[in-house]
Amino acid sequence: MRKTLTILCLVSNTLVFAQQRADSVAAAAPPLPSQKPAPEKNELKYNLNESGSHFFKVTFLNQTWLRLNQSNPGTTVIGEPKNNTFDIGLRRTRIQMFGQVSDHVFVYFQFGMNNFNFLNASPGFNTTGTLSNRKVQAFFHDAVAEYLVFKNKDYLKIGGGLTIVNGLSRFSQPSVGTIMSMDVPVFAQATVDQTDEFSRKLSLYARGQVGPIDYRVAVSDPFPVQTNGAAPPALGPNANFALKGHNKQFQGMLLYSFFDKEANQTPGYMTGTYLGKKKIFNLEAGFITQKNAVWHTGATATDTVYQAMNLWSVAAFLDMPTNRAKGSAINAYLGYFNLNYGRNYLRYNGIMNPASGTTQAVGGLGGTQGNAFPMFGTGSVIYSQVGYLFRQDLLGSGGTLMPYAQAQIGNYDRVNKSMGVYNFGLNWLIKGHNAKLTLDYQNRPYYQALPATGQLDAQGRRGQLVLQYQVYI
Known about the structure:
Blueprint: H1 2-28, E1 44-47, E2 55-70, E3 75-77, E4 80-81, E5 84-100, E6 105-116, E7 139-148, E8 157-163, E9 201-210, E10 213-221, E11 240-241, E12 249-257, E13 280-297, E14 304-323, E15 328-340, E16 346-349, E17 357-358, E18 373-377, E19 379-389, E20 400-412, E21 419-431, E22 435-449, E23 456-472
Antiparallel strand pairs: 1-2, 2-5, 2-23, 3-4, 3-17, 5-6, 6-7, 7-8, 8-9, 9-10, 10-12, 11-13, 12-13, 13-14, 14-15, 15-19, 16-18, 19-20, 20-21, 21-22, 22-23
Signal peptide: 1-18
Protein name: Porin
Keywords: Signal
């Protein structure tokens, strides 16, 4: 017992001496430098090699809409007349997965859904009593592999698969998470959900950047229009996409950059605004052509005439800082679109349409209810937009603001006067494009068909107000 007590005393004295010695050494040593907090990450990225030149990345996008809409005349919602509607929907919900898996190989996938409101309005709400399923909605938008011909050089990339690489314009292949306005000018996605899959096509393409020139060319295998989930219009005197025959589609786009080059990583997608991070001024020209893409009746009801689809555009795009120190910037676009879908082609479209039917069909055209207007047609369109990004500390830690305006002026062969659709909006950029609120007001015309000619004649105007909340990781 006495030995045990002696051992415990020795151990205790040793520990006390060691602690005193450590305290004195710590007091004499210079203070350690304070550790800086790790920088906040803004992406979900996994490096496949030590340098990070090979990587795989995942992004998530969700755009929620709260909308109040003045209905076009005759609008019904699930069988009841509605002069106004209020709805909540998901304009876009997307997952992107892409990466540089070797020095030469890039892969890109996108999965998600669009226009998901109470009607589940894509491909369309049916009132025929047949079964429908609101859970069948999400699909692969893109699945493409690309080969970089020259290592570490963007001179030539060859790719293939389901892709949005497109010829007509920058807004035919928009990066929807970075657009300046609440929504893109959808008319520029010329065959959307007719002979493509939400503007994507099965294509073989080449693209690249050589000095100030950015180019892309593609040959696409369009889908038959009868596979788009809606009943195709009957053959008649006005052109519609043909139900017989199958021809490849050819498209190309050339862009000249006067200052900084644009982002060129993901296949096709073109940034809406860099929020003052780049100095961009571009001129662009693009086209899409397809032999015998549409048909209509000729001299008699049994005489079928096939026509080519020929679309082209020219445009200028500006996105640059006005004060780098404060982070303010300007965004502007002006484009002319010459659109030949065949004789008197015209198609209504309403984005995430909040209505299911109409009692006042317009000139035998489908989908004229709710917020729809003649969006696609043979003729020409002038599209412009302008926005101004205020200084980055405008709202302190709460972000900044970016107001904008859009104008789409259509001169379609089947509409007897110019059609103007106007949008005015305000972005609250809480954290750039990663978190933003957008309030948008749209003013559009509505029409009746003239009995004598079948031409569409404007009868008045309607509006819609949308609040969008975007989260983008």
